[in-house]
């Protein structure tokens, strides 16, 4: 892919961008102009003093009247001289502003980006639209939201956005060699969303999208302020339907501040926006997985103490702790919750990996009768045999158990949904755990699946492929010089 040329830099709306360097050269010769490929390097790396002064004088001061440039928050410098005054004003607002993306998704018709204050930008192969009032009253030109989304997407493919330059079209698209739809074919939106810290909604087999509803997001944020309560357990009496908007006055619940805040955040965009800024989705994800990990650790500690001494848990919020069936149920539930939240969140994967590895390590080390050597004489919970109170046997199994490839493998199935980058820091613990379950004669397929997972993590780490947060998208190699559009992941 060729780098942008001086001619490309000054494209006007009425011009068609040459598809290739050769075509650009032929066009220049036919018009009696110098071949623009001769001074590519000059445009990319060094501009004349006169050009620099011209840009400094016109940088963002006037839009639509003459040559003018805008330096966007992403770092890219855009030539907006082809835009009329109204469209140029939208470009200035969009490129200089910061919007929050609630979620994004890929669909058959293109890509959708839901912004925090309710406008939704759609990028399709034939059109780019927004649901905001500005675009609805003037659909022939891009609004500030379209300019911003396209700038963010293109900047995510640049190794150094601050050195990149492009002209802007009236539809908000930078005039670059490859449209964003083409770039997203090689690097999926899910990968780009992770780079930009946007929540990506995954589609299930039935077409339903994974992700959080507005009320689920509110529950997630509010529960994050509690040291122990998970979103699923937070105020189950609070159920809001947001199809009918309530006024702030209607959201008030006398004598219940928490319920009032819940309803306000569910119905009032400004309150919801403020809460999300105070507790971003990345922080919510980290807190969630930390809580799950701590709950599981405390549960096993209380269980061991009870089996050894008969001492009951003192924390009333601690689930289970005195009955092997309750412990097994809680641990299975914890792993299921982690796996579900991996699919609904675009952050916190390392926290999820830490929690899962801790649970797996803990169970791999408990291939024993928990009542052996206790000092209070307890022999069983309710008359079960040794295997029926052995956590390792109940959760991982033994070699005489058949585990089919499609069967759920405790913890391993959840680990398989994580990207290699999140698992690589814990690969040594996983390797040690594999050694333990091999000695303890776990089901053959369980050993094979964990071994295959470890090899894939090590291979990804060795090749650098594990740097992608989703593990599914390959990065486009950089081409050209640093001043142009080199499509590789930028540092953040």
From TrEMBL:
InterPro entries attached to this UniProt entry: Znf_SWIM
GO molecular function terms noted in the UniProt entry: zinc ion binding
Record-annotated SWIM-type domain positions: 119-154
Bias type Acidic residues, positions: 37-60
Low complexity compositional bias, start-end: 20-33, 463-473
Signal peptide: none
Transmembrane segments: none
PROSITE patterns, per database record: ZF_SWIM
Keywords (A to Z) from UniProt: Metal-binding, Zinc, Zinc-finger
Region: Disordered, residue numbers: 1-71, 463-492
Protein name (record): SWIM-type domain-containing protein
UniProt lineage: Eukaryota, Fungi, Dikarya, Ascomycota, Pezizomycotina
């Amino acid at each position: 892919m060729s780098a942008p040329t001086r001619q490309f830099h000054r494209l006007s709306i009425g011009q068609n961008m040459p598809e290739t360097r050769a075509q650009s050269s032929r066009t220049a010769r036919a018009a009696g102009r110098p071949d623009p490929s001769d001074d590519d390097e000059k445009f990319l790396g060094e501009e004349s003093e006169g050009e620099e002064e011209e840009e400094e004088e016109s940088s963002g001061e006037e839009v639509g009247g003459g040559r003018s440039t805008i330096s966007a928050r992403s770092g890219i410098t855009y030539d907006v001289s082809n835009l009329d005054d109204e469209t140029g004003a939208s470009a200035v607002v969009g490129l200089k502003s910061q919007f929050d993306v609630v979620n994004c998704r890929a669909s058959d018709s293109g890509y959708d980006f839901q912004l925090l204050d309710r406008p939704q930008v759609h990028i399709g192969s034939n059109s780019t639209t927004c649901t905001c009032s500005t675009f609805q009253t003037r659909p022939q030109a891009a609004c500030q939201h379209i300019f911003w989304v396209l700038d963010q997407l293109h900047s995510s493919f640049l190794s150094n956005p601050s050195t990149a330059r492009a002209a802007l079209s009236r539809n908000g698209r930078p005039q670059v060699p490859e449209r964003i739809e083409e770039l997203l074919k090689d690097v999926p939106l899910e990968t780009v969303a992770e780079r930009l810290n946007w929540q990506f909604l995954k589609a299930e087999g039935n077409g339903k999208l994974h992700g959080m509803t507005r009320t689920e997001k509110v529950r997630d944020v509010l529960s994050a302020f509690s040291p122990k309560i998970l979103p699923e357990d937070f105020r189950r009496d609070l159920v809001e339907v947001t199809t009918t908007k309530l006024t702030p006055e209607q959201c008030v619940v006398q004598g219940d501040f928490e319920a009032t805040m819940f309803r306000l955040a569910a119905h009032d965009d400004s309150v919801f926006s403020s809460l999300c800024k105070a507790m971003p989705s990345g922080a919510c994800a980290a807190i969630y997985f930390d809580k799950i990990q701590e709950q599981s650790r405390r549960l096993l500690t209380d269980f061991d103490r009870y089996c050894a001494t008969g001492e009951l848990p003192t924390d009333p919020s601690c689930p289970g702790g005195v009955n092997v069936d309750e412990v097994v149920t809680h641990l299975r539930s914890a792993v299921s919750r982690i796996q579900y939240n991996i699919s609904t969140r675009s952050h916190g994967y390392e926290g999820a990996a830490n929690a899962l590895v801790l649970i797996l390590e803990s169970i791999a080390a408990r291939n024993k009768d928990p009542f052996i050597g206790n000092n209070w004489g307890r022999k069983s919970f309710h008359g079960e045999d040794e295997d029926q109170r052995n956590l390792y046997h109940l959760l991982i199994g033994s070699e005489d158990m058949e585990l089919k490839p499609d069967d759920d493998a405790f913890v391993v199935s959840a680990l398989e949904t994580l990207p290699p980058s999140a698992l690589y820091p814990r690969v040594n613990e996983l390797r040690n755990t594999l050694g333990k379950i091999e000695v303890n004669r776990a089901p053959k397929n369980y050993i094979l699946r964990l071994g295959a997972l470890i090899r894939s993590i090590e291979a990804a780490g060795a090749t650098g492929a594990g740097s992608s947060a989703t593990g599914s998208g390959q990065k486009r190699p950089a081409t050209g010089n640093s001043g142009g559009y080199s499509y590789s992941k930028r540092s953040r």
